[in-house]
Write a structure and sequence with these properties.
Elements (H helix, E strand, L loop, with lengths): L1 E6 L5 H19 L6 E5 L10 H14 L3 E4 L11 H8 L16 E7 L1 H7 L8 E6 H5 L4 E7 L2 E2 L3 E2 L4 H4 L5 H14 L1 H4 L6 H13 L5 E10 L5 E9 L2 H15 E4 L3 E7 L8 H4 L1 H6 L3 E11 L9 H10 L4 H8 L3 H5 L1 H9 L7 E6 L4 H6 L3 E2 L2 H7 L8 E4 L5 E5 L6 E4 H4 L3
Parallel strand pairs: 2-3, 2-6, 6-9, 11-18, 12-13, 12-17, 13-14, 14-15
Antiparallel strand pairs: 1-10, 4-5, 7-8, 9-10, 16-17
Helix pairs in contact: 1-2, 7-16
Amino acid sequence: MTWFSHEAKPIDRPTIEGLVERTLGEARERLGITSYGRVLLLPPDITRAHAGVGWITEHFYHLLADQGADVHVIPTLGQHVPHTPEDNRWMFGSIPEERIHVHDWKGGVTHLGTVPAEFLRKQTGGAVDWEIPIDLNTMTVTEDWDLIINIGHVVPHEVLGFANHNKNYFIGLGGKRLLGASHMASAVYGIENNLGNLITPVRHCFNYAEERFLGHLKDVYFQVVMDYADDGQLVHTGVYVGDDLETYLDAARASKAQNITAFDEPVDKIVAVMQADEFRATWVANKAVYRTRMAIADGGELVVIAPGVERFGEQPEVDALIRRYGYLSQAEVLELYATQEDMQDIPHGTAHLVHGSSEGRFTITYAPGGLTREEIESVGYDYLPLAEALARYDPAVMKDGWNEMPDGERVFYISTPSAGLWATREKLGDR
């Protein structure tokens, strides 16, 4: 069960800092910890910085360090680009750089076991028929920790239904084989079958793996939920703390109630902004595509304003894959996947090609800061010069929700697509 939760709109920073302190006290009592000798903090990476997880991590760090604990931090970046020292200072403030470690998804993992193909086949109704190797960050699973604290933002997600909880382990600290098998499974099962569901097939697999391979860890989840206040600002509305699946479900139910916008009719045009300090590749900026695709009308348009985007993939090999094939339909990707060795070598990149496609239903128009028209059009997107996009859809003027432009154009504007899910009631169904 959830150890404790706090819900309000908004929850201010001092209150959250108090809940951080409470977490450490309750962990001692509930997990039988006599003293905090070595503690590991597992926050998200910079692409989730808007959720305040950086200063929450910083507060945990100093509370523990002041008690004499040996505290370490591993941003759960998966295969994203590692933070620079400047990124770490921007996100984690005064935490010493030498205490922040980079997850090596290729060589820095240890094999713990396998989710059997039979289990995944059952969860996907026969759509997926392969095992998931559980290869996790070596420092996390082989060193002794008095406590591991997972910190994160629960919000609709394209692979797991909702982000955070044990995603911190199995995606954030996963190895190449784990990342590939899980992402490809989500792509085959269908991105729109995952979004907004509390438990997706891949989440079932991660729950299976956590129970069997991580049950010995003394860990706790510190999860936040956010929503828009009346003034349009994104604020904290919930904190959920505990060490089990129910803790995730409590947070996910709150996110489901607050972070999903349902339309009676499909939307002809959506304009979404991806912040430059967080989103530097279409790999992460395509959250604008994932989170809006179920709302956009056939023949409609999504405009993604992404001033920080300068590449496609987070890693060179993934970037090359996207440039080689472009964003294709699920059917096209699966046909190529059967024969192309480069796709088979990095299936998490192959899955991304599916996730980032409109399946030919609507137009995706990118206004990037660091990619040319030729580059954008080569992967199957339309191009809009950034200056033109910012002049027409000025973030300082646009309001979240419906906007009528001076020439009569009506668009739905989203300032932080990564903070929610937008869909028609028909596509949401009974989820």
